[in-house]
Structures are given as C-alpha cells and as structure tokens.
Amino acid sequence: MRTxxxxxxxxxxxxxxxHFAAYGVDTSLEDIARGAGVGPGTLYRHFPTREDxxxxxxxxxxxxxxxxxxxxEEGVDPADALREWLRELxxxxxxFKGLADPMLGAVKGKAxxxxxxxxxxxxxxxxxxxxxxxxDRARTDVSARDLFLSALALAWIEDCAEDGAAxxxxxxxxxxxxxxxxx
Length: 183
Hints:
Low-confidence stretches: none
Shape: elongated
Strand content: under 5%
Distance between the termini: 55 Å
Number of strands: 0
Structural class: mainly alpha
Largest sheet: none
Number of helices: 10
Radius of gyration: 18 Å
Order of helices and strands: HHHHHHHHHH
C-alpha cells in the first residue's frame, strides 16, 4: 500500500473507532470520512461496506479478547473458565453500541466480514465448553452455538435496557444453571 493510502486507511480506521464508540455502529459513514479528512470514495475504496469497517475497527479489541482467552485456559476450573469466557465474550460484543445486531446477522450469514469473527468466537466457546463437559461441569446437550448466542443475547439486552446492567448478573446465572452440571 502506498504511504498516502496507508495513512488514509489508518485515519479512517482511527476515526471509525472513535465514532463507533461515541455513536454506535449505525453512525454515519460520511461523518467518519469527513472526520478522517477523506472523501466517501476513499473510505469505500478501503472499506467497501460498513461491516468491513466494523470488522477492522474490532481488531484491537479482538486481540485483547484472545489474550484473555489464553489466560483463562491456564489452571482455572473448567466451569469457571467457561463462565468467565462468556462474560468476556459478552463485553466484547458490547465494544460498540448496537454491535449485537450486525453480529447476529453475521451468525446467519456465510461470507460477511464479521462471519469469520463469529465463527472464531463460537469455536473458542466450544473449546471452553468441551473442557467443562469433560470435567462433568457442563451438560453434554449444550452446544457452543447455544452459548455464543446466549452471550450475544445478553449483550443485546445490556445494550437496549436502560437498567439492564443491574440484572445481567442474574441473567448470566440463569444461563449458567441451564448449562452447568451441579458441583
């Protein structure tokens, strides 16, 4: 990539992260382009769709989430590790207001830019779930997709509910009692 194109890419991405954080995932792409000091054509040349831009904007947060995954894999009770992973996943799915909607769309899609992210997160969830199942700490009839969608649902509830944050812990408990085997 040419130096000026790379600079434009980085400015667009930095501005997108700021706008998604401040205004949610439905923020105006024209405002992002304007804030980055480029025209809409330049934005679309680098990021043909909103989802392409969103996937790139999530990259740093995803790296942090994967680092947390590695920490949870070491020496933690498998059921506790699964529960903490689901919490971390829910936080990730709330990186930007309104993120749960495009992520749900990606779960349903086949080739969308966020689909690979969703598949990766579901696969990691499956790894944690299988360890908990092997330790007889999670039911064997629960799937990674069920738990991924549960984390997505909790992120959506927390995003939409005015006072949802107060009840998220109890909703996590309800979900956990649904997948865990009593100790």
